[in-house]
Amino acid sequence: MPAAVITGASQGLGLAMARALTGRGWDLIVDARHAAQLTSAVGGLATVTAIPGDVTDPAHRAAIAASAAPAGRLDLLMNNASRLGPSPLPALRGYPLDELADVYQTNVLAPLALIQLLAGPLTAAGGMVVNVSSDAATDAYPGWGGYGSAKAALDQLTAVLATEEPALRWYAFDPGDMRTAMHQRAFPGEDISDRPEPEVAGAALLRLLSQRPPSGRYRASDYPEASRAPGTQRGPAVTR
Ligand SMILES: NC(=O)c1ccc[n+]([C@@H]2O[C@H](COP(=O)([O-])OP(=O)(O)OC[C@H]3O[C@@H](n4cnc5c(N)ncnc54)[C@H](OP(=O)(O)O)[C@@H]3O)[C@@H](O)[C@H]2O)c1
Fold first, then answer.
1. Which residue among the candidates 104, 147, 171, 223 is catalytic per the annotation?
2. Best residue among 5, 13, 190, 221 to mutate for probing ligand 1, ranked by most atoms within 8 Å of CB
3. How far is it, in rounded angstroms, from Cα 77 to Cα 28?
4. On the CB side of 34, how many CA atoms lie within 13 Å of its CA?
5. Helix count (H) and strand count (E) of the chain?
6. Per-chain mean pLDDT for the chain
7. Is the pTM of this model over 0.90?
């Protein structure tokens, strides 16, 4: 049975992927900070081990690694948990640096720390690492400098790791707009009901994982046939 670690799986894209992969027979280890919400979200899913905690906490990351260790192999690490930063999004001139440090801790350092901890079992499986990115990593939008620069750093870590660890597949994955809590925080007060559900990007990511293309940066929109799968809804592209 293939095994994966997915961070940030109590809602949004992480939960969509947890549901999809357990439905395909995967064993999962998942996390999120709010224990009750995580348990309620994945409690009904067989073959899921929920470990509540914050990815920026070294002890929590060690607990994830300890849970993955007995199997000796790990097929997928999906670094999905992410921090947007303050809402409304502040311009860089006034961006609070303590908030920026928190964004980098969650979006850059914690994913790399998990990669370091799980590299052994990932290598044993010839596994894949998905670091969830954003178009804010490559395009410049006012207000998105904190989050976007952190995602750009994560993209670059992904690209360098692909050269250093060619036995693994390394993917920076840009899901595009999704109708989620994070997206609503990014656009406070706006009606985001035209954005696609996270299952649309999830379908694209499933396609990517099954095709196992060369390491690189991929967008959900690279897999339009998956995004148009029955039961998914597609809204117009906006930004981020
Ligand atoms: N939504 C979009 O339009 C969009 C666009 C481009 C890229 N993305 C990226 O897609 C990914 C998923 O986003 P989403 O919109 O699905 O987010 P979401 O619905 O807000 O869900 C985020 C998940 O991560 C968990 N989480 C947040 N901080 C965490 C931490 N420090 N430690 C552990 N878990 C944490 C949350 O639970 P707790 O709050 O309980 O911790 C939740 O389960 C992110 O990497 C995001 O940057 C999103």
1. 147
2. 13
3. 10
4. 6
5. 9, 7
6. 95
7. yes
